[in-house]
Amino acid sequence: TQLLEQSPQFLSIQEGENLTVYCNSSSVFSSLQWYRQEPGEGPVLLVTVVTGGEVKKLKRLTFQFGDARKDSSLHITAAQPGDTGLYLCAGGGGGFKTIFGAGTRLFVKA
Amino acid sequence: EPEVTQTPSHQVTQMGQEVILRCVPISNHLYFYWYRQILGQKVEFLVSFYNNEISEKSEIFDDQFSVERPDGSNFTLKIRSTKLEDSAMYFCASSEAPVGVLGPLHFGNGTRLTVT
User: Which residues on chain B are in Cβ contact (under 8 Å) with A95?
Assistant: First the structure.
């Protein structure tokens, strides 16, 4: 069974700080996605990483896919209160399904 | 930007009753999905639907559940006889291609189902 473990589960930081959240698995994934979920809404796709070692940037967010395609990280530079939310990593579970990690709940204090 | 829409946003029902959750996927998407998220837990796959048939389903998707695409735009999830443990947020999603590089999921805002 493929599992995605995310850490930390919860992170509370001050505005302006940097942070990194992790997504790990013992399985190889052909691609991983990062989603952000606000309360009462569905997950919204941030990025898809495909190639081992790949780095993608989305403004202050940097996503990296591990060389072995078993893990990924999300780094946020100079976090802002608007970054507050639940960050989910997800990957193909074989066939048509996507499996999700439990998420990292980020709270950025002004 | 096109979006997935779900109705109702909140449904309260009594145990044993049938409910139908409705979704309008993005119009040019071909793959449709239902996921659920029990409060405080992971987003879990229920079922995928392609070419007017179920392409994959999870162990959660037992005989109490069914899906249908009754016309060219709607995609529904029916729970025949709801149980307390069916209380969750149900998300509809669609994608242009099978999940992966070309087929990221586009989610609706969910229906919160409360079974009393």
Answer: 48, 55-56
Residues 35-94 of A with CB under 8 A from B: 40-45, 48, 50, 88, 90, 92-93
Q: Which residues contact A90 (CB under 8 A, 6 or more apart)?
A: A4, A32, A33, A34, A35, A43, A98, A99, A100, A101, B43, B105
pLDDT tens digits in sequence order for chain A, 110 residues long? 789 999 999 999 999 999 999 999 999 998 899 999 998 899 999 999 989 999 999 999 999 999 999 999 999 999 999 999 999 999 987 778 899 999 999 999 99
Q: Which chain A positions have a beta carbon within 8 Å of B45's beta carbon?
A: 93, 97-99
Chain B positions with Cβ closer than 8 Å to A: 4, 31, 33, 41-45, 48, 50, 55-56, 58, 91, 93, 98-101, 104-110
**Strand order across the A19-24 sheet:** A5-7, A19-24, A71-76, A61-65, A55-58
Residue B91: closest CA among A88, A51, A47, A77: A88
Asked if A42 lies within 8 A of B91 by C-beta distance, the reply is yes
The beta-strand segments (E) located in chain A are 5-7, 10-14, 19-24, 32-37, 44-49, 55-58, 61-65, 71-76, 85-92, 98-100, 104-109
Q: Which residues does chain B have with pLDDT short of 70?
A: 100-102
